[in-house]
Structure formats: structure tokens, C-alpha cells
């Protein structure tokens, strides 16, 4: 059995946030790195143009906010 079968993937939680203040690829990398270090995070996707942050895994909103602020940006 494949551990990443479609059934397993659909059971993962994905939360979407908006990050304010990112202006370049380095900004995106900083946010990905900080959020990716949160225990329980299994994936991070950041879109610079929209400010969209998608976080996969089991993680509290407060932990995401703190990580984004550590990277130097604001979660809105």
C-alpha cells in the first residue's frame, strides 16, 4: 500500500493564510523556512503575487503567525 495514496493525501489538513509585506523571492524563502520548521507542518507553499500561504499538516494558527512574524512579515 502506498503511504501517500489519494485517501491519505485528502485527509491532510491544509490551511490558507495571507502574508503581508513580501516583495521578492528571498521573502518567500524566509517565510517557507520559518513555517516549515513548525512541528507538525508537512508542506508549505507561498505565492509572492497574492501573498497566499498554504500550510499542510496539523498546526495551530498562532504558531503560523509567530513563524511569519519571525521571518519579518505580517499574517493578515
Automatic annotation (TrEMBL):
Signal sequence, start to end: none
PROSITE patterns: HMA_1 (PS01047), HMA_2 (PS50846)
One GO MF term: copper ion binding
GO terms (BP aspect): copper ion transport
Record keyword Hydrolase present: no
Record keywords, A-Z: Metal-binding
Name of the featured protein: Copper ion binding protein
Native source organism of the sequence: Microbispora rosea
Species lineage: Bacteria, Bacillati, Actinomycetota, Actinomycetes, Streptosporangiales
